[in-house]
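README: folding subset

This subset contains proteins for which both the sequence and a predicted structure token string are available. Records are stored as plain text. Below is the entry for Band 7 domain-containing protein (287 residues), shown exactly as it appears on disk.
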Amino acid sequence: MQEYYRGEKRVTLIVIGCVVGLLLIIFLSRTIKVVSPGFVGVRVLFGKVVEPTLKEGLHFINPFASVIRPDIRTQAYTMSGMVREGRIRGDDAISALTKEGLRVKLDLTIWYRVDPEKAGEIYRTIGMDYENKIVRPGVRTVIRDITSRFTTEDIYAEKRPQVTAAIQDVATEMLEERGMICEKVLVRNVALPEKVRDAIDLKLAAEQDALKMEFVLRKAEKQAEVKVVEAEGIAKAQRIINRTLTVKYLQHEAIEAYKALAGSPNTTFIIMPTSPEGAGIPLIIGK
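--- output ---
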């Protein structure tokens, strides 16, 4: 009988030990939290966000708190007219009016990320669906506002970098107010009505032709200037030569030339006198 009670007591202790161990495991699982790289941990205790946010790594927290893990890596949100290219399947290009009132469509990608220091505020004031609540409508509004300040030609060709920079500046300010960081805005395509696009292309082609002709004219002017300078140099040299040229000098040069001809074994020539000074013209009569 005594052995029976001892065995029953042992079983009870084992059961109690198992329950305590299970409770301990549950307690530790709720106390120890791991935040993966590229995320932060937002603690929520009894319906309230607890600051500060948890960085990546191992953390011990209140077992009654839950942890939300927002992604703080760079995210790309694309709005495009191409099917299956953006987040929205189908034509999701931004339709906007230019300064002249013409309608254009823009394909755009924005690179952004959540500010780690403001992840708790974002979760408390916006929630985890910040992309559809803030990023998408905010950026589309910014694009329509900036587009209305530029002409169609500026957006399509000449000033697209300035348009992109203006969109990025305003989008950066807008997202910063809501706890996000805008890294870059990419205007990937500008679609115009066909007639407007053709007219702009013709104008740009005409401007390029005009610039080409202007270059050709400038080149011709420079070549003419060079020829004038060369002619002036030749004329100046001739004036100097004429002032220093004498009959005796010419006779000396002629004699030296005759000597060179006389030294040639294959040439026979006769000097025909043409002046009282004895100068003449060599007449080659055979080789």
